[in-house]
Amino acid sequence: MASPAVGLHDLFQQLKSLVYGIWRKRWYMMATTWLICLLGWGLVSTLPYKYESSAQIFVDTDTILPSIVRGIGIDVDVSKKIDVVRKTLVTRPNLEKIIRRSEYLERLARNDAELNSLVINMQDDILVASLGDGMYRIQYEIDDARLSDRQRAEVAKNVVNNLLSFFLESGSSNSGANKDATEFLDKRIADYAERLSSAETAHAKFKQDNIEFIGGQGSFLSRHDSANESLRKTRNEIAELNVSLETLQEQIQNVPATIREARSSRGGRGGGEADPLEERISDLEKKIDQLRTLGFTDRYPDIVNIKGQLEVLRQEQKEKQDQIAAELSASAEAGKKSNYTTETPNRLYEQLMLNIITTTTQVKSLQQRELDQRKTVAEMEEKAKRVPEIEAQEAQLKRDFEQLRRQYNLLLKEQQDLELRSDVEGADEAVSLRVVEPPNTPTAPSGPPRLIFLSLMLVGGLIAGIGAALVLSLLRPVVLTVDQLRLQFDLNILGNVSRSLSEEETRQRSMELLFFAGATAALFVVFAGFVAFDMIGGPI
C-alpha cells in the first residue's frame, strides 16, 4: 500500500520542479507571449470586414401554361424552369453587367486579369438557395480590402439588387401564360413547317439520286446486260490480240536485227576505204607489166622476186576472203566487230517490231477499257442488290413525311383552340414572382469574428510563452529538493542548508514580481484596447 503514496509524491515533486523551471524563465515566457499576441492581434486587425446583403423571393408556379401544353402531349415543369434560372443567375455575362453598373466594382476591374479574378470571387461569394415552398434567397458577401467599409456595404446591396432584377426578368420574361403558350406553339409550328419542308426536299432529292432504281428495273437490267456484252467483246478482242502478239514475238526471235555484209574492196556500199592488200597486189602487177614492157623476161630476177611477193600476197588475200565468208555465215551474232564486214539494219526485223509495238499498245488500251467496264459491271451488280433497300428507304421517307404532316396539322388546330381560350380567359401570368424581403444596406459587418480571433490569439500567446519557458527550463534544469539531488548523484547527503535572503534581495524580488505583474496587466490592457477598437471604432 506504500507504492501509490510514493508515486504521488514523486509526481508532485516533478510538477513542482516544472512549475519552478517555468517561473525561472518567466521573462522569456512574457517576451514570447507579447511577441505572438502583438503579431496575431495586428494580423487580426488587418482582416477586412465582411458585409452581407440578402433578399427573399416567393415564386408561384401554379400557372396556366402546364395545362395548355399538356393537351399536346408535352409536360412543362415551371418549377424546373425557375430552378434553371436560379442556377444560371451567376453566369459571367450577368456578373460583368453588374460590375459595369457599379462604380466601385468597375474600379477593381481595370484589366482583363482583374475582371476575371473579380468574376470568379463573385461566383464564390454569391448564394442563390431554395428555401422550399417556392421561397428563394439571394445572398452576397464581400470582404475586398481595396474598398472601405461603407463601399463594401453599398456594393453588397447593389449586387443583390441587380441579381434580384435579373431573377425577376428571367422568371417573368413570359409573364402571360397565353402569350407564353402562343409563342411556344408558334415556335413549334415553325419548327415542324421547316422539318416538313426538309422532309419533302429530302424525298425529292432521294428520288433524284436514285432515279435509275426508282424509275423501273427494266431499264436498269437492260443497261446491265449491255455492259456485260461490251465486257465480253472487249475480252475477246484482247484474247485475239494476245494470240497475234505471241505469233509476232515467236517470228521476231528468228529474225536478226541487223545483216552483216562484206566491205567492198573499192569502197562499196559500206563506204569504207580500199583494201591495202589488193592495192599492193595491183602495184606489183603493174611493176611486172612495166618490166615486161622494157623487154625483160620472166626469169629476170626482179620479175621472179615480184612474182614471189605476188604469190604470198594472193595467199593472204585468199585467207582473208575465207575469213570474210566465215563471218558472213555467222552474221546472226549481232555484237561482233570486224574490219572485213559491216552491219546494216534488217527491214523485216523493223517491220515485225513495229507490229509488236502496235499490237501491245492495242492490248494495253483494251485492258484499260476492260478494267473500266468491269468496274461499271461490278457497280451495277452492287446497285442491283440495293433495289429492295432503296424501295424500303423511300417507303420510310414517305411515312416520316406523313407523320410530320399529321403533327403539323395537330399543332395548327391547337393554335386555333388556344386563340379561342385566350379570348375567354384573358391574360394570366405564367410565373408569379413576389419580393418578400428586399435587399438592404448592411449596417454591421457579418464577419470575420475578430473578438473570437483576438481571444484565441491571447490564449495562444500565453500557451506559447509557457511552452517556451518550459523548453528552456528543461534544457537547463535545476535541483530543488534533497530527493532530486540524491537521484542525480550517487552520494551520501548529510543535510541541507536553507538560504536566507537579505533585505536588498527581498526588495529586488518584489520589484521583479511587480514588473512581471505589470507586464501581464499591460498585456490584458492592450488586449482590451484591441477589443474596444473593434467594437467601437472599427465597422461603420
Structural account:
- This protein is an alpha+beta fold.
- Among the domains are: 2-47 and 448-537, no CATH class; 51-175 and 431-437, EIF_2_alpha (Alpha-Beta Plaits, 2-Layer Sandwich), CATH 3.30.70; 256-345.
- Helix content is 70%, strand content 8%.
- The protein has a four-stranded antiparallel beta sheet. Strands 4-5 form a two-stranded antiparallel sheet.
- Strand 2 (126-132) and strand 3 form a beta hairpin.
- Helix 2 (26-46) runs antiparallel to helix 15 and helix 15 packs antiparallel against helix 17.
- The two termini are 68 Å apart.
- The model is unreliable at 1-6, 264-272 and 424-430 (pLDDT under 50).
Comma- or semicolon-separated keywords:
single chain; 540 residues; alpha+beta; Alpha-Beta Plaits; 4-stranded antiparallel beta sheet; 17 helices; 8% strand; elongated
